[in-house]
């Protein structure tokens, strides 16, 4: 295993137990950092606006990313389109800390994801199930997150994806060696990674929840389901009181198993993001279906 | 049997707990509240984000009790973010967190993630063998007062120091399989 990949997985370990927040400008980045975010995700439009406004969603303006980078001391992440390795090269050249090859942006390649081994900078990728997670890790992702359904304020898909990954891991943990190639074939996952998961009973990289987290209780739910941290996108800056909600979600992520603390921080937060019932979305509007 | 706590608000606390679990005579526990803080014979402040950890310490009224215990002699070891929490001064005018150790720390001193690196060196006070050093967006120690003993430097920068029962490293022994630093903390500082 090369050293850089180890270091990139290590940075994800440093983020564990924390909240990574979507921000669209330096002011929001400052609010996120002051609220206790472990990292910020710099992007031009949060997912709920991308949904509303439509059109092609691309990598953000490098100027905005640089402004955010110079404003905060915590790690800065940014998104590139699936398969758009030049956007990834541009983001790497900005000296940020992590790239999210994200289904929230409009895919640039409908067959292939980025060869992430070709980069020094770490990547996080979304996954709905174990096979997808291991394909992304096979391509060089140093961190995984659930896809959930971004910009909906609806946690149901993130729950489904986290539960699916966990139950698939349980299913193969400890299986005899001769069964593993067939599992690899069934899941469409690299054999060596299947062997590793069967042996260790866990993903070889850190796994966060993302896509639909809107409340402190949502964050704590994902943590109790085994997530190692939480991404919050539209849920914070599309709510009534972003500062207070951000602080509350940070606290609920740390004390995810203490209902009395979650109750306390959930008081009087104002309106959450309005949210979308998923049956009202057409199949093309399901961002989680992007990626292969 | 010694009870060694790991501050478990955020970051690499499970990694520390796992390594401590491999050392005989040690009972490792995660510390998230004042009650567990009172049970420990020593505490590790893990890697992670110092701004997040510092804020949680304050919000959940752990900062003062932890500071008091350290000032009255509780053995403490900070790794990376933990070292930032310990420092009396943070370069660049950031307010200190626990502010108990006479060092000035420089955050993200080496740069961003693209500047993270792995090295190794012999630290005579700790082990005769080379120790792997993992630096993740790491700080270094800019300045130490006379009462602080420098344990290790790398390319002219202080990366490990000790002051009484307080130990600070800008790197992450918890991300390796090497137990020597944990053993050192237990044998030389806790016992």
Molecular structure report:
The complex is a heterodimer of chains A (292) and B (191). With 292 residues, chain A is an alpha/beta fold. Chain A contains 13 helices and 8 strands. In chain A, helix 2 (26-35) links the parallel strand 1 and strand 2 (39-42). The model of chain A has no long low-confidence stretch (mean pLDDT 96). Chain B has one domain (2-190): Rossmann fold, CATH 3.40.50.880. Chain B has a 7-stranded mixed β-sheet with strand order 2-1-3-4-12-11-10. The N and C termini of chain B lie close together (10 Å). Classes of the chains: A alpha/beta (292), B alpha/beta (191). Chain A binds chain B through residues 3, 6-8, 10-11, 13-18, 33-39, 73-76, 92, 95-98, 120-122, 247, 250-251, 254-255, and chain B through 8-15, 32, 47-49, 51-52, 55-56, 59-60, 80-81, 94, 107-108, 111-114, 116-118, 134, 136-137, 172, 175.
Helix count of chain B? Answer: 6
Decide which structural class fits the backbone of chain B: alpha/beta
Principal-axis shape of chain B: globular
Order of helices and strands of chain B: EHEHEHHEHEEEEEEEEH
Structural class of chain A: alpha/beta
* Cα gyration radius of chain B (Å): 15 Å
- Going by CATH, the homologous superfamily of chain B would be Class I glutamine amidotransferase (GATase) domain
How many domains make up the coordinates of chain B?
Answer: 1
Main interface by residue count: A-B, 36 and 35 residues
Radius of gyration of chain A: 18 Å
Largest sheet of chain B: 7 strands, mixed
Helix content of chain B: 25-40%
Q: Give the CA-based shape of chain A.
A: globular
Strands of chain A, total number: 8
How far do the termini of chain A sit from each other?
25 Å
Major sheet summary line of chain A: 8 strands, parallel
Average pLDDT for all residues of chain A: 96
Highest-level CATH class of chain B: Alpha Beta
CATH topology of chain B: Rossmann fold
Give descriptors for this structure:
heterodimer, A: 292 residues, alpha/beta, eight-stranded parallel β-sheet, 13 helices, 8 strands, 43% helix, globular, B: 191 residues, Rossmann fold, seven-stranded mixed β-sheet, three-stranded mixed β-sheet, 6 helices, 34% strand
